[in-house]
Structure formats: C-alpha cells, structure tokens
Amino acid sequence: MGRTERFRFSHSRKIDSADRYVSAAADAGVIMQSAQSGNGRSVNVNGEHLLNFGSCSYMALERRPELRDGARAALEEYGTQFSFSRAYLQCALYLELEALLEQIAGRPVMVTPSTTLGHMAALPILVRDDDFMIIDQFAHASLQSAVQLVPGVPLTILRHSRMDQLDEQLTKLRDHPGLIWYIADGLYSMLGDFAPFDELAQLLDRHPKLRLYIDDAHSTSWLGRHGRGIALEHFADDERVVVALSLNKAFAAAGGALALPNRELLERMRRCGGPMLFSGPIQPPMLGAALGSARLHLSEQFPSLQAELRERLQVSERALSRNGVQLVTSTVSTIFQAQCDSPRITFAAAAELQARGFYCCICTFPAVPMNRPGLRFTVSRHNQPDDIEAFAAALSDTLANVYRRELAPAPQLLEAGK
User: Fold this and answer.
1) In order of start, what are the domains of the chain with their CATH numbers?
2) CA spacing 20 to 30 A to 131: which of 26, 207, 304, 368?
3) Contact 149, 198 (CB under 8 A)
4) Which of 242, 216, 149, 135 is nearest to 224 (CA)?
5) Mind listing the pLDDT tens digit for each residue in 116-171?
6) DSSP labels for 195-247?
7) Calpha distance 64→350 (Å, rounded)
8) What is the edge-to-edge ordering of all strands in the sheet holding 155-158?
C-alpha cells in the first residue's frame, strides 16, 4: 500500500471514528442543541433556563452599549452587508478598527475574517520551503488544519508543552537550512493551561532559528494590557513571534486578527494570503461592534472589568477545591476540564448537570484524543459568585453519582455471586 492509500485509509477511519463519537454525544442530548434565548448568565435550552458555564464570552461584553451602539451605527451607514471582496473594496471601518487594534497589541495588526482563516492566510506566507514545523499535540484544530496548507515542509508533533523535547529537536535541527516554526496555543481551549512562555523565551534566545506562531484566541481581552492577551504580554516586542487573536469570544464581536512583527510582512499577507483575497468580509454591523469593543478595551474602565473576572476565577478555584473536583491542570484560567474515564461517563454527567439546571460542554474525540474525554466548563463575568458555588457543588455530586451508577456491577452479576 502506497503513501497515498495509507493516508486515505487513515483519514477515512478518523472520519468514521469522529462520526461515531459525535453521533453518540448528539444521541445523548449533550451537543447540537438549540438555545431559544439567553442573557449570558443563563441560556434557555428545550424550555429550561440553565445557568451558563459553557460560554467563551469571558468578559461578558456582548450586551454592552458600546458594542450595540457600534453595530447600530454601522448598520445605519452600510446596511446588513458590504458585499465586496476586501481585495477589491473594503469597508472603511476596517482601517479604523486596525488602527485601534494596533494600539491594543503594540504592533501592526491585520484583521482577518476569522481566527481560523487568519491561520490559513498566515502560515503559507510565513513558512518557506526550506523551513521545518513543530506543532503541539493539543494545538487548536484550526492550526492542525492550517499546517496542512504548507505542502512539502517537514512537520512533526510535539507532546504537549514538553519544552525538554522541543529543545532536543531544535538541537538536532541546528544545521537545518531554514527556520524552525513552533506552532502552539497561548491558552489551550480544551485543557485550560497556558503555553510555557518563560521556557519558550529561553529557547528563542538559545536557538537562533526558532520562530513562534501562537494562537492566543482564548486569552484575548481578559488578559494583558488593553486585553492584548498573554502571548503579547510576553512577546509584543519580539520580531520572532507572530500572534493570532480573536475578535469573537471575549472580544464579543466577529473575526480574527494577526499581530505581526512589521508592516512589510502585513502587506505581504494582505497581497498573498489566500483568505485575504478570496473569502468574504466581516459585515459592517460586526465591524461596528468590534470598533465599540476596541474603544472599550482602550478605556480607563477596562482594567476594572478584567479584575472582576479575576475575582470570579478565584471564587471558582476555591469552590472547586472545597468540593474536591479534580481538574486536569492546576492552572487558573477561564477554561476548566474535569477528566472522565469514558465518553459514556462524560455524556451522563453532562446530561445530569443539565437536569440540575447547569449547562457545560463535553470534550471528546475528535476535539481531544480518544483516551482524554472530560467535562469542559468555563467561567465568565456573567457567572455570579453564588452561581459558581452552586455549580461546583453540583459538579462534584454529579460526578460521584455517575461513577457509582456506571461502575456498579450489573444486577445479574450480583445475583450470580450469591
């Protein structure tokens, strides 16, 4: 069997496995649901108001007047859409937004239709034919897809955040003709842990050919000066680092952004990055919302909003510890994961939490490896301290109940053992 046939078989098997896992989760009623309404703190699912511990709107900005007024003004000026490829004619709101984002990021910024499409525009431009790519095994799926758009360039997968192994690989590759790109998340969307930034900074100094490409979508807004995210807190002045941000999630608008080392590289991506030429634009109402959000990020009151979220996270850390909830990482971030022994236990726990009035997410294959299923929940400014306390207690009790049920001997076995 040749290389192509093996790839096709492996790819087909992966799709079949994903279909089974996703179908099982849908049949269990814990994904692919519809929300009839929601105000951030709660979400209405199947007529039931559930306290919301699944949102990525960490800063709870989506109903702020600054964003709604921005969307409304853009709607009045342009209507619901400005239907041009940005390569031909861009809405002037883009230029205003990029200028504000440069103040936030502290370096040149290019707005992209989404963070995913930003990766697809950036990586084929950044990575040259004689380069080498190393990607963290838990890097976001959008990054795993984007590296496939750089054909012919060697690619290897690094065990999660193993900087000792990265150091070894970089040492072995010291005579490689091109650059070595390490591709990772700033805040990992399933595990809730951060990239080891201090160690990465040391590796950058020790290995001249190392370059970093970091997807920092999940720390945008709630971390860093003006909400620029944790990666730019470490590397804003480092020309060896490219950072992708999200204007969705905690930023509460739409689209993505690339924080780039210099304007020359930005212009090259505008000219040659596929999605920058051929994909549709962010439509005016959401550009207006992004402008409103950017102005809020640059305001004097924004640090106090970030501090409110940090207080919620401290409440969460104490409540989860007090209730004995075991998490996959000790990192305190907006994302938490309680690992489960099987998808069946994961689905049962999520369903029971919904029955108790709480919404959270599952993480199973293909979002995580098959042997790493778990409950993924998030904390935002929407979550009140009392809500967090109640959720932590319910989560602990639910996991205990589900494990007792799922791991108990079947009745017929008990009967046979008499």
Assistant:
1) 25-54+302-406 (3.90.1150.10), 65-297 (3.40.640.10)
2) 368
3) no
4) 216
5) 999 999 999 999 999 999 999 999 999 999 999 999 999 999 999 999 999 999 99
6) --HHHHHHHHHH-TTEEEEEE-TTTTTTSSGGG--HHHHHHTT-TTEEEEEES
7) 30
8) 109-112, 256-259, 241-246, 210-215, 180-185, 132-136, 155-158
Eight-class DSSP state of 283: P
Between CA 86 and CA 166 the distance in angstroms is 39
Q: What burial class does residue 405 get, using C-beta atoms within 10 Å of its C-beta: 0-12 exposed, 13-18 middle, 19+ buried? A: exposed
Task: Of 178, 182, 160, give the one whose Cα is nearest residue 169.
Answer: 182
- Report how many helices (DSSP H) and strands (DSSP E) the chain contains, helices first: 15, 14
Residue 407 — φ and ψ, nearest 5°?
Answer: -100, 0
Q: Which residues does 388 contact at the CB level (< 8 Å), separation at least 6?
A: 312, 315, 316, 319, 379
CA dihedral for 67, 95, 231, 184, sign (positive or negative): positive
Q: Which residue has the tokens 């932590």?
A: 392
Give the closest residue to 334 by CA, choosing from 235, 222, 247: 222
Q: Which of 223, 244, 222 is nearest to 233 (CA)?
A: 223
Tens-digit pLDDT profile for residues 335-361: 999 999 999 999 999 999 999 999 999
Given a contact cutoff of 8 angstroms between Cβ atoms, the answer to whether 352 and 399 are in contact is no
Q: In the structure encoding, which two tokens stand for residue 350, read together?
A: 């999520």
DSSP secondary structure code for residue 409 in this structure:
P
**Residues 146, 273: contact at Cβ < 8 Å?**
no
Residue type at 412 in one-letter notation: Q
What is the residue type of 307? A
Alpha-carbon distance values, 214 to 63, 182, 197, 378 (Å): 29, 8, 11, 21
d(CA 390, CA 380): 15
The C-alpha atoms of residue 377 and residue 119 are separated, in whole angstroms, by 26
Cis amide prior to 366 (ω within 30 degrees)? yes
